[in-house]
# Entry
Amino acid sequence: MKEKIDKGDLYLLKEHSSLSDSQLGELLEQKSYANITDWQKFVKYLTLVLGAGFLLSGIVFFFAYNWADLHKNIKFLLVFTLLTVSVIGAVYPKLNTVVRQVSLLSASILVGVLFAVYGQVYQTGANAYDLFFMWVLAVTPWTVLSRFSPQWLFYAVLANTTLILYFLQVTSDDLLFYSGLFLLLLNVVLYIVPLILGKVYTYRIESYYTGIMTFVCSAISTMGIITFIFVNYDRYSRADLKGLYLLLAAGSVWLIGSFMRCLKTKDLLIFSYFLIAIFSIVFSILIRIADFNDGALLLYAIYSVGGTFAIVKLIMNQKKVWSHE
# Structure
């Protein structure tokens, strides 16, 4: 199948050439938009991923149901066998690339199962954070070399879970605001690194991954700014508030940066995230400065309806502008 061209690149080509609107439309249909073959390939790989996922889920539930009756050697033998098969499938050159990538994803999941089995059998006393931290370290090289968006998405979930468990089980409440800051920085890194690796190794990270990571970063940034609006400064020390100020700065930089990127790439999804973030922040300011009375509730209702309509209108107008540029 021919390699798809990002529509943002085609719009950029039109800006710097004599390409007409009709020619641009034809190029978008041929080179950018999904056709029947693309959808068939998508369904094929979707069923493959779902099949692997259901198989792994069945394995996990099998262990959970029969765990007490299994000898420890049987437990390790089953996990090692499945892990070995997955690794062989990931490196076997005659298999389809996607099959190898799904096998690698399965192996990454089974690594966590192996750590859990080891901890349970030998009663290591490790908490959940220790397990997830070792899991992240073990699958990091595989993820970097995978060139597979679902692998990166799994790694992002794993890394976020590890960081959350670190702040819940290892640190104290004094780092409450820093936890939000580090979560934001972690997800920004998880957003940028695959894009850089894609350019270095000439592969494209899927749009759903960048869309999800953009949403996560925008959500954390928005919640950080809203926290700054509502926080009671008398309850926290200067060190705690420093973390809040850093979170505010990082969140603001992300929102502004994502907005500038969406203007450059003509990405409506990121544009909509930015509008929703601004809507939420302004709504929080209204709640902060207004009392909870009948007039304030009416104001909130009017703002909610009007703001929602304005967001939809702005997105539609921006889509028309970008489609005619």
